[in-house]
Specification:
The complex is a heterodimer of chains A (249) and B (432).
Chain A: H1 2-15, H2 24-35, E1 39-49, E2 55-65, E3 70-77, E4 85-89, E5 94-99, E6 104-108, E7 136-146, E8 149-158, E9 167-173, E10 179-185, E11 194-204, E12 207-217, E13 222-233
Antiparallel strand pairs in A: 1-2, 1-13, 2-3, 3-4, 4-5, 5-6, 7-8, 8-9, 9-10, 10-11, 11-12, 12-13
Chain B: H1 2-25, H2 27-30, E1 40-56, E2 61-79, E3 82-95, E4 98-100, H3 107-112, H4 117-120, E5 122-124, E6 128-139, E7 143-150, E8 181-189, E9 195-201, E10 210-219, E11 222-236, H5 238-243, H6 245-250, E12 259-275, E13 278-289, E14 304-314, E15 320-328, H7 340-347, E16 357-366, E17 371-380, E18 385-397, E19 400-410, H8 416-419, E20 422-431
Classes of the chains: A mainly beta (249), B mainly beta (432).
């Protein structure tokens, strides 16, 4: 009888290897809490490697408030895109693009969310992850060491009206709840077609931030490395920054 | 009129004075986290070369034009409350620099022309340097003022903007930049994110000036604009000028007597929205002409409606589609109904379509990481004429672009579209 109980306990432990730990939804909330911010300002560099091996470097500055619910980015270089601005509000449901050369602002259909931004491997919706607990349902798949940190591995499926991916799998630190890797799956895909790896995690004010993000398109063999060169949190950003009519300012 | 305008100006300037005190006092807050350092002045520009080729089926000859354009730009912010921009453009042409508008006419209409008409409807591309824009903007709590030469647009359509009476747009190259307009823009911030925008373009006198007022607001995922425009347009009576071509050839100043300025009043608006991921756009309204009936053959004094409605969508495979229907109430039903006035007005850029109902449609796809291929079509819905426009954009290197654009017209033999030359252009551009 005693052997039977031990066997049952062992079987349960095998079936639910992390049941003693946090639930998937609790982990998602912890991630959202870790990544939440009132406002931030960042200067970034994006190095795009094309399938042919050539490299492009884009530089931009970006402002965001309410966890990225409203965000504005302005390209600083190269010269052909200098001054172009992209404004996203309502968690990316509304997108406007401002062309500095023609001085025209154009509202884009929200289907553009799945389109690559400026030839990079990031789509508009990748730039607007927001609160993932409100966009995905999660299943905890286990734990794994990644990038020197013990991580929870979660499989996330989009909720109705959620992101366009069929699912994403994320690796998130067990102690700091910082996302370190995301695998993106297309509809009908059994293996990931894109992979985002976050590195160089450092303190920025009171927050831990990955200063280097590498998005690889595993199908097209392209890569975009985003490096944050400056970031500030909890700064005062006027509301007028996020008005489409002010893009030409 | 003058008195009213001066009173208005005084009120505005008083508001400027009051707001200036408020705003400059709060500039420390705007200069958040100290990351904006002033003055910020940027020098930029581009060099662009366009090689175009047209093949005239009627004359069985090609026509080549090489066009180089240089733009030097400087823009910047002096502080949180003001900015400026100056753009200088230089243009150089070589090759077939003489343009004879009558060559674009159907053969039958060419045959009917006065022998002197080809001469009076000719023009020459000349090298020039000019200021494309030069403006400064002052920002205040509740409004901004932008005097100077500035780009000013209306409408939400991609290929056509029937609510934009200040600029002309080529649907075969709709994204190309236009020149600035000399005027003053005042934009007032209203509650709930709305905005009242007034634009005034200076004429010889107040009664010759152009003006536009727009109320801009948003609801749900929709940007909306209500618009009133008063503007003086110009049309040429080409039929009368053709009849009197010999006299005009002898005394070119007579040509102006066949050109008529007339004021229109436009009430309309535009929206830009989104439904289930589909981008929706519409603009339109009603044009009322104040022209008096003249003895000329040109019928420019009628009221008419304009409308554009369209959508675009990006599929997950990155394929982009766009479709726009354009209704020009001043157009003719069928190309066969178009006389010399209607066709020449379109060639001269006085109108943007000959027929009433036009469809613009296209697909675009990123064929490589750095190149997009697209095919657009302009379809005359009633006469089934079509102009096919294949376009390839290739980002050759950072700051360097190559663009190929073809123009392949199809239409009934003897029709305007059927008589248009085939051709296209290759454009190379380096920005700095």
């Amino acid at each position: 009888m005693r052997n039977m109980i031990i066997l049952l306990i062992a079987a349960a432990a095998l079936a639910f290897p992390v049941s003693a730990e946090m639930s998937a939804s609790e982990i998602l909330k912890k991630i959202d809490l870790q990544e939440s911010f009132r406002s931030n300002y960042a200067v970034m560099k994006q190095i795009i490697t094309t399938s042919g091996g050539s490299k492009r470097t884009l530089e931009m500055k970006a402002w965001a408030v309410n966890n990225g619910d409203r965000q504005l980015s302005e390209y600083l270089s190269p010269p052909d895109v200098r001054g172009q601005k992209i404004l996203m509000t309502d968690d990316g449901d509304n997108i406007w693009m401002y062309n500095a050369e023609t001085r025209r602002t154009r509202k884009l259909g929200s289907s553009m969310k799945s389109k690559k931004v400026m030839g990079s491997d990031f789509t508009y919706e990748d730039q607007n992850m927001g609160n993932i607990s409100t966009k995905y349902s999660a299943v905890l798949k286990g734990t794994e060491n990644f990038g020197g940190a013990e991580c929870y591995v979660l499989e996330l499926k989009p909720l109705p009206n959620g992101p366009s991916y069929s699912k994403i799998v994320i690796w998130v630190g067990k102690t700091d709840f910082i996302t370190r890797k995301i695998d993106f799956y297309e509809k009908g895909g059994t293996s990931p077609f894109k992979r985002l790896v976050m590195e160089d995690i450092r303190k920025a004010g009171s927050k831990n931030v990955p200063f280097k993000m590498t998005m690889r398109n595993l199908q097209e063999n392209t890569e975009t490395v985003t490096i944050i060169t400056e970031i500030k949190y909890d700064i005062n950003i006027p509301d007028s920054y996020f008005k489409s009519s002010a893009l030409g300012r | 009129m003058m008195k009213r305008f001066l009173i208005f100006l005084c009120i505005v300037m008083f508001q400027v004075y009051l707001s200036a005190d408020d705003e400059f006092g709060s500039s420390a807050e705007m200069n958040f986290a100290g990351e904006e350092k002033y003055p910020q002045i940027i020098f930029s520009g581009y060099v662009e070369n366009t090689f175009s080729c047209e093949y005239d089926k009627k004359a069985e000859k090609e026509s080549l034009l090489d066009y180089t354009r240089v733009r030097l730009n400087s823009s910047g912010k002096l502080n949180d409350n003001s900015d400026f921009a100056v753009g200088i453009v230089g243009r150089m042409y070589s090759g077939s620099t003489g343009i004879n508008m009558t060559e674009y006419l159907p053969e039958e209409k060419q045959d009917d022309l006065n022998p002197f008409t080809a001469y009076i409807f000719s023009a020459e591309y000349e090298n020039d340097i000019y200021i494309q824009e030069a403006f400064l903007t002052f920002y205040f709590d509740y409004f901004k003022i932008r005097p100077g030469r500035q780009k000013y647009y209306s409408g939400t359509g991609y290929a056509y903007n029937p609510t934009d009476f200040f600029n002309s747009k080529n649907p075969l190259d709709p994204g190309y930049e236009t020149d600035g307009l000399d005027g003053i823009l005042i934009s007032f911030n209203l509650p709930a994110g709305a905005e009242l925008e007034c634009f005034y373009r200076t004429g010889y006198r107040f009664e010759d000036s152009d003006y536009q007022t727009c109320l801009k607001f948003s609801f749900f995922s929709t940007d909306a604009v209500l618009q009133y425009t008063g503007i003086i347009l110009n049309r040429t009576d080409f039929e009368m000028a053709d009849a009197d071509a010999a006299s005009i050839a002898a005394d070119p100043s007579l040509y102006d007597s066949y050109s008529t300025d007339y004021r229109i009043h436009f009430i309309g608006g535009s929206i830009s929205s989104d439904a289930a991921g589909i981008g929706l756009r519409a603009e339109g309204g009603y044009v009322m002409s104040s022209a008096e009936t003249s003895e000329m053959t040109l019928d420019y004094d009628g009221n008419y409606e304009v409308l554009l409605a369209g959508f675009d969508y990006t599929f997950e495979m990155q394929l982009y589609i766009i479709m726009e229907y354009y209704r020009n109430g001043a157009g003719v039903n069928h190309e066969d109904d178009a006389g010399l006035n209607e066709i020449m007005a379109n060639i001269a850029g006085e109108t943007d379509s000959i027929v009433k109902d036009t469809l613009f449609t296209g697909v675009s796809y990123p064929v490589t990481d750095l190149a997009d291929a697209a095919v657009y079509a302009i379809v005359g819905l009633r006469d089934r004429s079509v102009i096919i426009n294949p376009v390839v954009n290739w980002s050759v290197f950072s700051g360097g672009m190559l663009e190929f654009s073809g123009i392949i017209p199809y239409g009934k033999k003897g029709s305007y579209t059927g008589s248009l030359p085939s051709g296209g252009f290759i454009r190379a551009k380096v920005s700095f």
